Amino acid sequence: MNDRLLEQILEIAAAAGRTAMEHYGGDGPVEYKEDDSPLTLADKAAHFVIVNSLQVLDPWLPVLSEESAEEEIADRKTWSDFWVVDPLDGSKEFIKETGQFTVNIARVQGDEPVLGVVYVPVTGEFYYATREGGAFAVRADGSTEEIMVQPAVPAGLRIVASKDHAGPRVEAFLDRLEGAECVSMGSSLKFCLVAEGKADFYPRLVPTMEWDTAAAQCVLEAAGGYLVDLAGRRLSYNKDDLRNPSLLAYGDDSMDWGTLLEED
CB neighbours of 223 closer than 8 A, spacing ≥ 6? Predict the structure, then answer.
């Protein structure tokens, strides 16, 4: 994966973020999809920017976006190289104006993400990675640093959970952990916290879709971390069902996170 392509994807993510921010704090209409998730004007506008820009880069490379029409992805099982996009991950956070929403763009080859960009429009920060090139964060001041997961300290675990989607099993898990620190966070930023060593474990037991995880998984894995299902299998892409199973994201593989989660 060449550096110029990565630079182009960073530019596209930033452009989509700027477009989304034009609607931030406004009172534009909000639609609701079948799964009751919100769809804003910002989602639609960012989708348009990303898809058009990616098609300029390579008109033959398909795009799987959260906002893609069914007919646009009807033949996706034939794809071996494609983009996976969430134009605005964390629409609820966008509506609530918490700042915890992201633009996610990933390149998937076969069934794995090989490039991932997560952009935070409110702060201007990026997390990005390629499969073999390491993981990096661009901070609000413009500085860039390589990021890596960190060893977990059992007596003081740092757990990150979803603001809106933790679920009863995760809530029960958090209740019984003594000395643990819990950070509630929206969007794919939760995976990025693990990737940069600011959290140890992110259990996600309620549904996500492939576009929710692809970019952040690339970042997490390039930083030395893991994203697996409850049986320990690495999360893969272009599955028959675009919904993901329950997931465990972590940095330290010396701990049995699945067993810890299930303990009474």
Answer: 129, 134, 135, 147, 148, 149, 195, 196, 197, 251
Phi, psi of 45 (to 5 degrees): -65, -45
Along the chain (264 residues), what's the average pLDDT of each consecutive run of 10 residues?
90 98 83 77 95 96 96 96 97 93 98 98 98 95 97 93 68 80 89 97 92 98 98 97 97 93 70
Q: What is the dihedral of CA 74, 115, 17, 161, to 10 degrees?
A: 90
* Rounded distance between C-alpha atoms, residue 3 and residue 7, angstroms: 6
User: Looking at the whole model, is its pTM more than 0.90?
Assistant: yes
Quote the CA–CA distance of 45 and 22 in Å, as a whole number: 10
- What tokens were used for 78? 């034939």
Domain at 154-262, CATH from 3.40.190.80, 2.40.160.10, 3.90.1150.10, 3.40.718.10: 3.40.190.80
